[in-house]
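Researcher: Structure prediction, please.
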Amino acid sequence: MSYDSIERELHIEATPEVVYQVISKPEHLREWWPDEAEIEAVPGARGVVSFGDPNTPDAKVVPLTVMEADPPRRFSFRWAYDQGEAAEPANSLLVTFELVPSGTGTLLRFTETGFRDRDWQEEVLVAQYSEHAAGWDHFLPRLVAYAARTVSKP
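Model: Predicted structure follows.
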């Protein structure tokens, strides 16, 4: 295994316009991914996603920087870099959502790249890659279900 990128393809019963909102707006992100999100879907915008209660030491607050915002086709951000640093290929991971119309829904092509660029030791690389792969395997199905529910709300 190369441990370089995580790639997933999912079909979502919602239009690319709806899916784009679900992957780029804080009020929607909170429904399927982080516990809290502060993000603006504008290239260069910096924000954070938080996992867990922010008032506890176990909370994980992760900075991110929007790289591309091209509704309703692509949304990407760099994340998992140290607070106070600028996101660059050598210190962050790149998450890209590509949305392709497919019948009455959307084919979502998800990638997270940059694991090898981090210059981690092999055991750290394998652990980080495995943790992220398991995380996306948990959260991406929630995105699919939430987007479909969002469409069917009255």
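Model: The longest strand covers residues 60-70.
Researcher: Thanks, that helps.
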